[in-house]
Amino acid sequence: MQTPHIEKKPSSLRYYQEGPPESLDAIDMSTWTLKLFLPYESSPIQITFEKLKNIATITENRRVVCVCNWSIRRNWTGILLEDLFDYLGINPSRYRCYNLKQLSLGTAKGVYDSTIELSNAFENRAMIIWDIDGAALSLEEGYPIRLVDFSLYRYKGVKCLSELHITDEFEQGYWEGKAGYCKTGKIKPKRYRIVDLQEHRFIDGTGEVTEF
């Protein structure tokens, strides 16, 4: 399951500008839960890591694109966002006009946030990921889980995901404010360095890259 030329992938630690968690041990997975807040509800639905992994696990080979002009195809293991909603008894069609705000577990230096369109996430089969290439997410990649919408730039999925909020507001996220990135996170049409192929190719910016 190893991704070709993985040693050539740029480091993702740069995307922890305020500092990652100090270690895996800093996150107690025996008490950790993913929290999902419905509109106008103050108390979240909570799900443990073990229950999350037992919903409908899949592994898919899909390509992500980074705003810093590179892309890589890897083997992602997790569940579809839509399957999480189904498991929790939440009708996805009821919230298709809403957005999904993500919050990271955070560090002593702060919390990362990002907002995406729910309808786009469902249609593009966004996943909640916990393994890549058969190994648990590293701190660098966003341990313990990360939401990935493959039709958007990587910065739209916060690392070390802790909370999901269904909301009618589309807020500017951390990286849009920090680096001036596009609020929607749509992939721009241009040439990117394709890490797994070790060449440059043009990506047309119409959504998830599936042609190579």
CATH C-level category? Alpha Beta
Question: Span between N and C termini?
Answer: 17 Å
According to CATH, the homologous superfamily is Oxidoreductase, molybdopterin-binding domain
Q: What is the 3D form?
A: globular
> Over the alpha carbons, how many angstroms does the gyration radius reach?
16 Å
- Structural class label: mainly beta
What is the helix fraction of residues, given as a range?
Answer: 10-25%
Listing every helix as H and every strand as E from the N terminus to the C terminus, the arrangement reads: EEHEEHEEHEEEEHEE
How many β-strand stretches? 12
Q: Indicate the proportion of strand residues.
A: 25-35%
In CATH terms, what is the architecture? Alpha-Beta Complex
Q: Provide a count of the helices.
A: 4
Count of individual domains: 1
CATH topology: Sulfite Oxidase, Chain A, domain 2
Biggest sheet details: 7 strands, mixed
Q: Regions with pLDDT < 50 over 5+ consecutive residues?
A: none
Overall residue-averaged pLDDT value: 92
Protein name: Oxidoreductase molybdopterin-binding domain-containing protein
InterPro entries: OxRdtase_Mopterin-bd_dom, OxRdtase_Mopterin-bd_sf
Organism: Vibrio halioticoli NBRC 102217
Domain Oxidoreductase molybdopterin-binding: 26-175
How would you describe what is shown here?
The chain is mainly β and 212 residues long. The protein has one domain (33-203): Oxidoreductase, molybdopterin-binding domain (Sulfite Oxidase, Chain A, domain 2). It is built from four helices and twelve strands. The chain has helices at residues 49-53, 81-87, 118-123, 174-179; strands spanning 33-37, 45-48, 58-66, 70-80, 99-104, 113-117, 127-132, 135-136, 146-148, 161-167, 190-194, 199-203. Strands 3, 4, 7, 8, 9, 11 and 12 form a seven-stranded mixed sheet that branches. Strand 1 (33-37) and strand 2 (45-48) form a beta hairpin. The longest helix has 7 residues, at 81-87. It is globular. The model has no long low-confidence stretch (mean pLDDT 92).
